[in-house]
Structure formats: structure tokens, C-alpha cells
């Protein structure tokens, strides 16, 4: 079901600690920042994430903070969602709505920013932004102040990417569907999983070299960081 497994939780010195399975490959953000991903690899990650969202939504849960850093990978290419601190539990998944403005600015859907009623499809918008994150190594408006980013999302609607002509027509259509401003036209997770873009998905094992490359870069940074020149 592509959700990080919960193991246990306990209080330690008045802090709540949550124990989950260990995803040794790190986050998708690390992988996307360190590598150029193919359409097939992006499709594979997006499909696995969409399946995780489908599971959450069927059980009445909206993630509300989907982004690359909250998608974890294993050294075998498994993809799992984590960080459910912003989740909303809804009693009727078909009709429930929320109005709370919550999430991370660059990944937030326009209806969240404008305080309209929203439901699980806000996660589909974030999934589309995450695809851009995999294309360009960062989400749209990441170089803007958070308040400016919120304004741009609400004003501009569907974001653009630098070189859309480099993408297949199927991928461009997938982005258009997930980043549809009109919520009624935006697909839910089950509908989205029927999109032909996912037929381009490469086997998850093709992600392994990318994950290992990202880990190596991260390890090298940790080795270099403590070494400072003596003053």
C-alpha cells in the first residue's frame, strides 16, 4: 500500500517519539536533486505514490503535505509515503471537505490557499508538483518568499516548466490533469491511476542506481562538513 509501516510510539522526556520502518534510501528530494530522472522513472515513482494516496483516500485520510521529502525510498526502489502530521481524517471520503490552510507553500493547491472547501484532490495537485520537482529538482516558485509563492499559485494557477517541449505529450497531459485548477475536472487517485502516463513506468529497480548516487553524495557532504579551516 506504499505507506511507511508504523512500529511503535513512546514518550521520552516529554517528547513523543514515533518508530517506523527504516527506509535506508532517504527521500525522493535527495534522489531528484542528485540525478536526472527519465520519464519512465518519474512515472514509476508517481504511480507508487498515487497508489499510496488511493489507499489513504479510501480510508478517509487527506495527506495535505505531499512533497518529495515526504516520499521515502529503499535501496531496492520501494516508494512509501511518510509524515502524516498534517493529515486530516474525514468520515465520508466522497463528500467531506476542509477549509484549513495547511501544508507547504510550493506544493499547496490553489483551493487551499484561497480558503475554499477542499477534499482529497489537493493531494493530486501536490502529486503533480512533485512530478515537476523530479523534472527540475525543485518545485515551482521555490526561489520566492513563501507568501509570494502562495500569491503566485493562487494567481497563476497551473504552473509552467522551463522546457515543456522536452516532455512527451502523455507526460504533458498527466501534468495538465494533476495540476488542473478546476477541482471538478481534476481526477481523484483512482481515476488518475488509469492515465496512460503510468504505462511508461520503468521497473522500480531502475531507481536503485539513482538512490545509491544520492546516498553517496549525502555521505560525502557529511564527511566534508565538519572539516573547517582553522581560524
From TrEMBL:
- Signal peptide stretch: none
Q: Which GO terms describe its molecular function?
A: ATP binding; metal ion binding; protein kinase activity
Sequence ranges assigned to domain Protein kinase in this UniProt record = 1-198
- Keywords (A to Z) from UniProt: ATP-binding, Kinase, Magnesium, Metal-binding, Nucleotide-binding, Transferase
Q: Which cofactor does it need?
A: Mg(2+)
Q: Which InterPro entries match?
A: Kinase-like_dom_sf (IPR011009), PAK3-like (IPR051931), Prot_kinase_dom (IPR000719)
Q: Which family does it belong to?
A: Belongs to the protein kinase superfamily. STE Ser/Thr protein kinase family. STE20 subfamily.
Protein name stated in the entry: Kinase-like domain-containing protein
Amino acid at each position: 500500500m506504499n505507506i511507511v509501516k508504523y512500529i511503535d510510539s513512546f514518550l521520552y522526556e516529554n517528547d513523543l517519539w514515533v518508530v517506523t520502518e527504516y527506509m535506508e534510501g532517504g527521500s525522493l528530494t535527495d534522489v531528484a536533486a542528485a540525478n536526472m530522472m527519465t520519464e519512465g522513472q518519474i512515472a514509476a515513482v508517481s504511480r507508487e505514490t498515487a497508489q499510496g494516496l488511493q489507499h489513504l483516500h479510501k480510508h478517509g485520510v487527506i495527506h495535505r503535505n505531499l512533497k518529495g521529502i515526504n516520499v521515502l525510498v529503499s535501496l531496492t526502489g520501494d516508494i512509501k509515503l511518510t509524515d502524516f502530521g498534517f493529515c486530516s481524517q474525514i468520515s465520508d471520503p466522497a463528500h467531506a471537505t476542509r477549509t484549513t490552510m495547511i501544508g507547504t507553500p510550493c506544493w499547496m493547491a490553489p483551493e487551499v490557499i484561497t480558503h475554499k472547501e477542499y477534499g482529497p484532490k489537493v493531494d493530486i495537485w501536490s502529486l503533480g508538483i512533485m512530478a515537476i520537482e523530479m523534472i527540475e529538482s525543485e518545485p515551482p516558485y521555490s526561489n520566492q518568499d513563501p507568501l509570494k509563492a502562495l500569491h503566485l499559485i493562487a494567481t497563476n494557477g497551473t504552473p509552467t516548466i522551463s522546457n515543456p517541449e522536452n516532455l512527451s505529450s502523455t507526460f504533458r497531459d498527466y501534468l495538465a490533469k494533476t495540476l488542473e485548477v478546476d477541482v471538478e475536472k481534476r481526477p481523484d487517485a483512482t481515476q488518475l491511476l488509469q492515465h496512460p502516463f503510468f504505462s511508461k513506468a520503468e521497473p522500480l529497480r531502475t531507481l536503485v542506481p539513482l538512490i545509491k548516487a544520492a546516498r553517496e553524495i549525502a555521505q560525502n557532504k557529511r564527511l566534508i562538513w565538519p572539516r573547517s579551516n582553522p581560524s
